[in-house]
Amino acid sequence: MTSTFLPDKRTGPGVGSPPPAPDRSTGRARRRALHWLTAAGFQLPALVLFMGLVLLPMLFALYAAFFRWGGFGMPSDYIGGENFTRLLQDGVFLGDLWRCLVLVVLSLALQLPFALAMAVLLNQRMRGRAVYRMLFFAPYVLSEAITGILFGMIFAPDDGFADQVLGKVGLEGLGGEWFADPSTVMATVFLVMTWKYFGFHMMLYLAGLQAVPRELTEAALIDGASAWQRFRNVTLPLLAPTLRISVFLAVIGSIQLFDLVWVTTAGGPDHHSETMAVTMFQYGFKRYQVGYASAISVVMFGISLVFALAYQRFVLRRDLEGATTTMRGDGK
Amino acid sequence: MAVPLLYAALSGFKSTDELSRNPVGLPESWVASNYTQILGSGDFWRLIGNSTLIAIGTTVLIVAVSALSAFSFARFAFRGREALFTLFTMGLMFPFAVAALPLFLLLRSLDLLDNPLGVILPQAAFGLPMTIIILRGFFRQIPGELEEAATLDGCSSFGFFWRVLLPMARPALGTVSVLAVVTSWNNFFLPLLVFTDAQWWTLPIGVQQFQGQYSADYAKVFAYLVLAMVPALAFYSVAERQLVGGLTAGATKG
């Protein structure tokens, strides 16, 4: 992205007008104050909304996590870190962490490479390319709830499409309880996740591939590089920023997974597909242990934050420069 | 990829009876009654209406508020700007689930439960970071000379924003609007918390309830699912370019 942004001193009101002759310093100070007020005025609605409905609830969750609290009135029964020590002994929550890790690893090891392969394939000139793109991306625009219910029915035991098709072709043995069997439920959830999200990652990669100059791969071709060498040594490095973003989104998505699990299994059977968000929901809205549920929220946030900061610090720094650290040293 | 969707669409034309005998093939006789029954019920249309109302409300609010903020980020140098912008970009990684509980309590104390504003306002708040980032990037590309010219012609900064910048930014505004509509349309968690009264249910909630109610009548549920997907898919086919553009821009700049 090429961006032209203004030199600081010439932005805002009063641009281009000559400085007022008498008493320069107070005039400038007043103008600066006016400038600041105008800028702040534009920020006000966004700030109010963001502070009130995003930051404030987050901070309140952090506060409530230190209380035994049922969610009515203000929290008053302060118990220190007890909710957090309880989490460390809660088998369901420890399971949530494990399942989250499994989803992250599966996403990175299977879903994203698959999306990359499809993107490389669809980046070639081929017939019906636009149709495939639309088709693969379509699941992404469907709501997770609707997707979940659809697959809940497809993977229903015995009567579901999956089992019936396997039965028809003589592979009954492969069919089963899918969502209802503790040993297959996570694989099934992952399958649905992949169906829903791989098109999104594929689209990201396609956008990234568009930015790879054709001359580079052509030059490599002339130099006698094989298709794999061209991909490995030319395309992949140039795609790296896109890959890093996609990995980031996949990990954060896995940490926060809720809708899909809620409508398919609600965490069952016997907590075998429960995620942190589902456990939080169960405690907070079903069992009225709001303090404990807040502690789960806080841990979830902590994990997201630590991951995000570490990722930003060690992996993303170069990519994010345009977004977070531009125009350093101004604002004086 | 398309198999599950095709399967659902075909199944909707079967009777549940036939579905268990003949899961894969075309329907023996095309039964449209599953679809027509749903289309003929006021409930279904009310869900669509609610989802539409909430999506439009959210989008208008997000775009208006973000445009003002992004304008200020892109065209003003002011103390604390970088810190503030970092705060918003950090908002990208705030999981909604974390805020869900206190947000619910806050909405309850503000008496916004079973009120569309109870969904619109938080959705807008959580949508701000992404929208501000995309719009800021776009606003910064508009040359500064334009602003100088407008100012010399006696335009105030709001006048420049309103009369010059916004009309020029129409493509970007379209992109963020499409993103906001899709996100709002698909939201499940928040309406689930806010609406206990069936009168306000949105489409994803309605589908879940319907499936619970008719869980034995597979064909009917399939027909319902298919009809529930139609608006999103139709919108996608119209706004594909904007949506994909927005997602890739948002993702690579986030």
From TrEMBL, chain A:
It is found in: Cell membrane. Gene3D superfamilies: MetI-like. It comes from the Bacteria. Coiled coil: none annotated. Its main location: membrane. Belongs to the binding-protein-dependent transport system permease family. This is Raffinose/stachyose/melibiose transport system permease protein. It comes from Streptomyces luteogriseus. The lineage of its organism: Bacteria, Bacillati, Actinomycetota, Actinomycetes, Kitasatosporales.
